[in-house]
Amino acid sequence: MNHRTNALLAAIMVALIILASSAYIINERQIAVVTQFSRLISTDDEAGLKFKVPFVQNVEFFDARIQRLDVEPERFMTNEKKWLIVDYFVEWRIKDIRTFYTSVQGNFDQASRLLDNMVKENLRGEFVQRSVKEAISQDRGTIMDAASRRISGQAEARYGIEVLGVRLKRVDFSDEIRDRVFDRMRAERERVSKDFRARGQEKSSVIRATAEREAAELLAKAREEADIMRGEADASAAKQYAAAYGADLDFYRYWRSLTAYRDSLGGSTLIVKPDNRYFRYLNNEDSAPLDAETAPAALPAPTIAPVADPVIPAEAAAREQTEDKETVLP
Question: Is-above-0.85 flag for pTM?
Answer without folding.
Answer: no
